[in-house]
Design goal:
The complex is a heterodimer of chains A (85) and B (145). In chain A, 26% of the residues lie in helices and 25% in strands. Chain A is of the alpha+beta class and 85 residues long. In chain A, strands 2-1-5-3-4 form a 5-stranded mixed beta sheet. By secondary structure, chain B is α+β, with helices and mostly antiparallel strands. Chain B has one domain: Aldehyde Oxidoreductase, domain 3. In chain B, 34% of the residues lie in helices and 34% in strands. Chain B is built from 4 helices and 8 strands; from the N terminus they run βαββαβββαββα. A 4-stranded mixed beta sheet of chain B has the order 1-4-6-2, sandwiched between helices. Classes of the chains: A alpha+beta (85), B alpha+beta (145). The interface between A and B is medium-sized, with 16 and 27 residues.
Chain lengths: 85, 145
C-alpha cells in the first residue's frame, strides 16, 4: 500500500525532501511504527526522527497521535509542533 | 458568513474588517498579529500545509461561529517571507453584541496557534532558526475547551 509522505519545517530540511512515496510492509500498523521503519531506511530519516517528543503527525490532513493506526491512509505528514498565528 | 484566506499577499485590514460589517452585526472585534523585530529578526518565513491549513482554520471559525452565534467571521493568515511590522494574521468577528465578538476573536487566535499547521522560521544576523512552541500558547488554547 503506497503512502504519500509529507514533511514540513526542520523535519523537511533534515530529511532533504518535502515529500516521498513509500510502501511499508503490512506489519507497520501505526504512525510510530512507520517512523521507526523510515528511520531505519536512511541516516537523514534517522536524524530527523531522533527525538519523537518533537514530532507531530497528520493522517489524511487530520492531526493524530503517534500511536494512531495508518490502515487505509493515503497521505501522512510528519512535522514539528505548529507555530502559527 | 465564514471567510478563510491563506495568502502570500499583504493583509488589507480595512477591506477585511468592512467585509464583516454585515446585517445584524452590532459589534465587531479584530485581532492583528505582526512580525516583531526581536533579536534582530530581519525576515519571518511562514511555511504551511496547503489544504490542511485551510480546513483547520475553517474548523476553528465554524466552532466560533456556532458557539458565539456570529454574524460573520474572517481569518486571514499570510504565508511566505515577510518583514518586521508586516501583518501575519488577522481575525475579525461580528456578533450582535460586543462580548460575543471579543470572546470569539480571542478564541480564534488562541486556537489557530495550536490547531493550524503553520511553522515560523526567523532570519537573524546569527542565521536562521525555527520558532519553538511556547507552553503558554498551548495552555491558552486548551483553556477554551
Amino acid at each position: 500500500m503506497a503512502i504519500e509522505m509529507l514533511y514540513f519545517a526542520w523535519v523537511r530540511e533534515v530529511i532533504g525532501t518535502g515529500h516521498e512515496r513509500v510502501d511499508p510492509p503490512a506489519e507497520v500498523e501505526t504512525v510510530g511504527a512507520l517512523i521507526d521503519w523510515l528511520a531505519a531506511s536512511s541516516d537523514t530519516h534517522a536524524a530527523a526522527f531522533e527525538n519523537r517528543e518533537r514530532l507531530r503527525a497528520a493522517v489524511d490532513q487530520a492531526f493524530v497521535p503517534l500511536d494512531a493506526a495508518i490502515a487505509g491512509a493515503r497521505e501522512i505528514a510528519i512535522f514539528p509542533p505548529v507555530t502559527g498565528g | 458568513m465564514i471567510r478563510i484566506l491563506v495568502t502570500p499577499d499583504p493583509i488589507d485590514v480595512a477591506t477585511e474588517v468592512a467585509r464583516v460589517e454585515v446585517e445584524g452585526a452590532g459589534g465587531i472585534a479584530s485581532f492583528i498579529g505582526r512580525v516583531r523585530a526581536d533579536d534582530g529578526v530581519s525576515t519571518l518565513e511562514l511555511e504551511h500545509y496547503p489544504g490542511m491549513t485551510e480546513a483547520a482554520l475553517e474548523a476553528v471559525a465554524r466552532t466560533a461561529a456556532a458557539r458565539w452565534s456570529l454574524a460573520a467571521v474572517t481569518i486571514v493568515h499570510r504565508v511566505g517571507p515577510m518583514g518586521p511590522g508586516e501583518r501575519i494574521v488577522l481575525v475579525a468577528t461580528a456578533a450582535a453584541h460586543r462580548q460575543a465578538a471579543l470572546d470569539a476573536c480571542a478564541y480564534c487566535i488562541d486556537r489557530l496557534k495550536t490547531d493550524a499547521p503553520f511553522w515560523k522560521r526567523e532570519v537573524t544576523p546569527e542565521g536562521t532558526r525555527w520558532v519553538e512552541v511556547r507552553a503558554a500558547d498551548a495552555q491558552r488554547a486548551t483553556d477554551w475547551a
